[in-house]
Amino acid sequence: MSSTRQGPGDVSPGPRPAIATVEELQARLSEVDQLINSVCTPNPAALTEAARLDTERADGRIRGPLHGMPVLVKDNIDTADLPTTAGSLALADQPPPPYDAPLVRRLREAGCIVLGKTNLSEWANFRGSSSSSGWSGYGGLTRNPYALNRSPGGSSSGSGAAVAAGLAELAIGTETNGSIVCPAALNGIVGLKPTVGLIPQQGIIPLSHSQDTAGPMTKTVRQAAALLTVMTGGGTDYEAHCLDDDLTGVRIGVPRGPLWGYSLGLDRVTEEALALLSQAGATVVDGLSLPTPGSEEDQVAILFHEMKVDLAAYLATRRPGGPRTLADVIAFNKEHADEELRYFGQELFERSEQTDGLDSPVYVAARLSALRAGRDGIDGLLRDHQLDAFVTPSYSPAWSIDLINGDHVLGSSSTHAALAGYPLISVPSGLVEGLPVGITFHGTARSDATLIRLAHAFETARIKAHGPFPTPEFRQWV
């Protein structure tokens, strides 16, 4: 981890004081976040926390490898000392949640310093169909540091942009379907969506209990693995799976079809990534296919039904005075339409409000269909070809920001895993006309450690071949 600095020769001066790291990051935040608007709520107590952790270290109490490491947390994850809004003005004036989310508590117990909360696509990008990733009523518009007129992806937009911009090396995002791996790919960082259930869902403003999970967004795979170890409670040392780049004996599949072909530049970079995996010793099994991930109608039916129920259960945990139901949020948005509904509507919310609970035959049938499409498709591909994992392009290069018409997403890698509740990890693979792109490793349930090993090996091989990933220049893309 980067909590130590190497001095001249082989002499190490030891861990860097946390307070110096926080001061440096706060100065960088003041310098560059006015360009990308990734952090919506800085933590005013970050320096105090850093000083306390430095004192603990001086007294010989070291909580672990993340002791004194700053981390940014997406603004739909509960923090008892900072607002949690999901980007909505409906929650902006409410008191902070009464408790930290369990994952935040684990981060603090491990010695992490919450540097602040990151902006997101409002309500995890599930309010209106013509939304723009990275925009919220509370946080405004987040921009991509590689191209300020291009999207940062979403919904974990601020977490992705902030890590890319050097505002922190560690951040937390959440994903239902693409909300970690998309901004990771578009911002040239690592994004890990763990197996659903591996990290507690409590204290996270929900969209879908069957698909939601928090996950790490970091500069390197090793950092993501270290964060995952802490976020899951420490039972598995995921960082121990970051070995070298020798993939001898590993079988990696390549499903083609609609997962390719929507971006020629992305395809070219991904073909180069496959060559690196092969050179590292992996057997690359090409020309495969995944079954279609079920009907779009079934996919959205799950989200509509779960959103209404899950959001009400979450809002019941907040202090009195704010919204208690989805209907309350819809009413608030209508009353504050000039601010909340300026660019796009809330027809997804309204359709969700019309659903009739999780006993609905429509929901039950859609859920079964999704599980078959997701799990049977992934597990069947892995089993039939004796694969350890498979790999696809992640997302198209960042599209132009268009607040009037919304996002222009050409293709993605995340739907099968979303329906199954299975893990994904996106790793930077290269640039297309100066815009970052990534590859995504996919696996079965609780194959997180395997995916980390493969992603770290690819990252190592890519750095050996091409050097460190280019840093953003904070310019307009032309």
Properties at a glance:
single chain, 478 residues, alpha/beta, eleven-stranded mixed sheet, two-stranded antiparallel sheet, 13 strands, disordered N terminus
Classify the secondary structure makeup into a structural class.
Answer: alpha/beta
- Average pLDDT across residues? 96
Q: Calculate the terminal CA-CA distance, rounded to whole Å.
A: 36 Å
* Low-pLDDT stretches: 2-12
Strand line-up of the largest beta sheet = 1-3-2-6-8-7-12-13-11-9-10
Strand residue percentage: 5-15%
How are helices and strands ordered from N to C?
A: HEHEHHEHEEHEHEEHEHEHHHHHEHEEH
Count of extended strands: 13
Specify the number of helices: 16
What is the molecular shape?
A: globular
Computed Rg: 21 Å
Give the helix level as a range of percent. 25-40%
Main beta sheet: 11 strands, mixed
SSE layout and pairing:
Blueprint: H1 18-36, E1 39-42, H2 46-58, E2 70-74, H3 89-92, H4 102-109, E3 113-118, H5 122-125, E4 135-136, E5 140-141, H6 157-164, E6 170-175, H7 181-187, E7 190-193, E8 213-218, H8 221-231, E9 251-255, H9 264-279, E10 283-288, H10 296-315, H11 326-335, H12 337-340, H13 347-353, H14 361-384, E11 389-393, H15 415-420, E12 424-432, E13 435-442, H16 448-466
Helix pairs in contact: 1-2, 6-7, 8-16, 10-13, 10-14
What's a concise summary of this model?
The protein has 478 residues and is an alpha/beta fold. It has 16 helices and 13 strands. The strands form 2 sheets. Strands 1-3-2-6-8-7-12-13-11-9-10 form an 11-stranded mixed sheet, sandwiched between helices.
